[in-house]
Amino acid sequence: MDSFVFTAVLFAAACHAGWNAAIKTGLDPLSSTVLITTGAGLVSLALIPFAGLPPAAAWPWVIASVVIHLFYFIGLSEAYRTGDLGQVYPLARGTAPLMTAAMTAVMLGERIGAAGWSGIVILAAGVLLLSLRGGRLLEPPDRRAVSFALFTALTICLYSVVDGLGARIAGNPHPYTLAMFVGNALVMIVYFLIRRGPSVIAPSLRAWPVGLVGGSLQLLSYGIVIWAMTLAPIALVAALRETSVLFGALIAVLFLKEPLRPARIIAALMIVSGLVLIRLS
Question: Where are the domains of the chain?
Answer without folding.
Answer: 3-280
